[in-house]
Amino acid sequence: MTRRKTLTVVTAVFLSCSLMFGGGAALADTYQVKAGDSLYSIAGNHKITVEELKRANNLQGSKILTGQILQIPVSHVSH
Hints:
By secondary structure, the protein is α+β, with helices and mostly antiparallel strands. It is built from 3 helices and 2 strands, in the order H-E-H-H-E.
C-alpha cells in the first residue's frame, strides 16, 4: 500500500474502534468554569452525572479551576 492509503486505513480503523468502544463520544458544547462552580453544580445544570462530566473531560478527581473549559457530552447538551 502507498503511504497515503495506509494512513487513511489506519485513521478509519482508529475512528471505528473509538466509536465502538465508547471513546468517541461526540462533544457539542463547552462550559467555562466560573468562581464557585463545582463538578456537581455544572453536571446538575446540564442534566448529566458528575461521572459523565468527568469521563468527557478525562478528569480523575474533582478539582477544577476557574476559567477551565469543560466539554459537555452531546447527548446531554441543554440550551
